[in-house]
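Box 3.1 A note on notation
Throughout this textbook, protein chains are presented in two layers. The first layer is the amino acid sequence; the second is a token string describing backbone geometry. Keep the layers aligned when reading.
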Amino acid sequence: MRRKNIYLSALSLLLAWQSQAQTNPEFKGKVGKTLSESTESWPQTAKAPKGAPNVIWILLDDVGYGASSSFGGLVNTPTIDSLANNGLRYTNFHTTAICAPTRASLLTGRNQHAAHMGGFAHQILSAGFPGWDGRIPSSTGTVAEVLKENGYNTFAVGKYGLTPDEENNSAGPYDHWPSAKGFEHFYGFLGSQTDQYKPDLAEDNAKITPDGRHLNELITDKALFYLQRQQAAAPDKPFFLYYAPGATHAPHQVSKEWSDLYKGKFDEGWDIYRERVFANQKKLGVIPQNAVLPERNPNIKAWNTLSADEKKLYTRFMEVYAGYFTYTDHEIKRLVDYLKASKQLENTVIVLILGDNGASKEGTLNGDVDRQLFAKPYTEAENIRYNLAKIDDIGLPAGTEANYPLGWAQAANTPFKYWKQDAHSEGGTHNPLIVFYPNGIKEKGGIRNQYSHVSDILPTTLDITGIKAPSEIKGIKQEPITGSSLYESFDNAKAISKHTTQYYYIFGSIGMYKDGWKAAYAFKPSITNGLLNDFSVADKTNNTWQLYNLNEDFNERIDLAKKYPQKLEELKALFDQQAVKYNIYPLINWDDVSNRILKAYSQSQQQTETAPKK
């Protein structure tokens, strides 16, 4: 009886094996009734194309076009300068105007709403609609998923920002953690911002406790650990590293060793800063020679009209921001130095995006010392006195959650008007891009002016590596990639821009670009609070659509809406088409979000008041 049972079990196993082989089209062998009648076939380990380079994407946060010395700014970034001087500067590159949509578009190569990230992954800033639910679907696979399936090791460190709040804990589910989106290892934070010395830290699929060191140091250490371990185990296998510091997003925090490097460097103020940076940008060739600097936004005071206390306070905010940025550059240098020492730099592509949007306007007019959702009911004078009392703590580990005032945001965003969140404006969406690739870029220090978008980075990377975009990932059909490759421009400065049409939409603010023309609508919230203060609209009358010819007026100084009404209507109709195609509808604006926040805040207050006292 026992032999019979063994025989039946073996026969059952063979039949199951045969059935599996018949239903598994990936099996290339033959299953017979006996081993001698069968042909074995093993799954093939994915291998990258021969000679495929390592790939590093570096995405900084809230930087501004006119901050880094690489693009004419007055903040020293020697490592970034070196990458730019030995690679290419792209001067006409665009993001979505705010962090999570930019990151979703970058990682998937699709428009933000096609990747379901019209707003954020935070529940209060998302909505239950296909373009807005804050959950990147499996049908829009990430660059990590594609490269992993093609023989790359994949790592991510720093800010992820694409995990729904309800999944942001050690119990999961982990469906929208980096580990579920193709990254074999992750070390960083999952939300939109975090304290740099007490980060909400996670590694792989668990929350961990930080050790008190700066987040920049922690993520760089971990990136080097991943790369060193990978090289020791598989030196011929290429890697993909997504390196995304929290810098220079608020809170601006860095040791005095770095911030004191800028003592007195900004005493001339933000107006002189803008003029000096604008001149530098023309010398570098990163803006047109006939460009004109826009007037200072009327919400911002002229520097020479400020009191001594205001100048002292505002200067310190900028010194801390600059030290924070230069320190970030130093940590990037550690990464580059490792690649040099390990003889991997020549065959490594480094794509460096200086900001996921424009400079941040969230520091308010007077600067923010301890950021809160709802602004304290201070008058301007009281706010300045409050901040001055804490001036020595700005940027320190046990100090404040600082963000610089609006005047410095405009300075850091030279030569543009407006800021982060302003999807209608180049000031919200126009960011520096640097591509460094010794084995693949012949021209060193070249300038490229092709119109491009953050969704272009994935298809560009696939062209560089020789990998085709998959039609399926793990059996799931993939949505079309909407970005266009920049690869041809590496060797040809005059390559035609392939990205000819692009919409922008962030909570009511609209931009519609087509072949050099752009329609723009600046949404002015009627509801404001500490998070959503509106500084984007100089004219406080009713908003109207505007029209710009970016080929002749790259920083949007001359509104042509009345001169070319038909062109404006064409672009408005195009936006409607794009809205239907990419799930932008329903249009959700800042008033809608503010109402949600106010309602949630009111409910939490009521719960606090009615809770039984211990």
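The longest helix spans residues 308-341. Residues 2-37 form one domain.
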